[in-house]
């Protein structure tokens, strides 16, 4: 989810997602769009997505994986993420405006059906 910004199968209805999750192999990072991710990141994600929890590594073991061992200092990572992030109030305000516009549109659509 964090790599792509949405949950796997998010475009499908919830019941279909449930069935796909149970019947299909776990989603992964092996598509053309995922070339930007490092081999180490892809391996770590694959380890996390093993369906059988007895075969899935513990958090302690994951933290020893090269993806985490070779990361930059947390302060640098947090700073780089937060540098271009708009202030919280601006983000909340934008979401409220978007929700209000969506609600107005839905109300207008409902009125046109009457």
From TrEMBL:
Domain Protein kinase: 1-68
GO molecular function, one term: protein serine/threonine kinase activator activity
SUPFAM superfamilies in UniProt: Protein kinase-like (PK-like)
UniProt family annotation: Belongs to the protein kinase superfamily. STE Ser/Thr protein kinase family. STE20 subfamily.
Protein name: Protein kinase domain-containing protein
Organism: Aegilops tauschii subsp. strangulata (Goatgrass)
């Amino acid at each position: 989810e964090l790599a792509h910004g949405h949950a796997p199968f998010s475009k499908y209805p919830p019941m279909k997602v449930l069935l796909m999750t149970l019947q299909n192999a776990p989603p992964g990072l092996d598509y053309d769009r995922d070339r930007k991710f490092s081999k180490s990141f892809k391996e770590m994600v694959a380890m996390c997505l093993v369906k059988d929890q007895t075969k899935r590594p513990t958090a302690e073991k994951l933290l020893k994986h090269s993806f985490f061992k070779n990361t930059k200092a947390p302060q640098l990572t947090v700073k780089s993420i937060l540098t271009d992030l708009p202030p919280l109030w601006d983000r909340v305000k934008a979401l409220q405006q978007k929700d209000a516009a969506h609600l107005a549109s839905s109300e207008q659509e409902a009125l046109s059906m009457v």
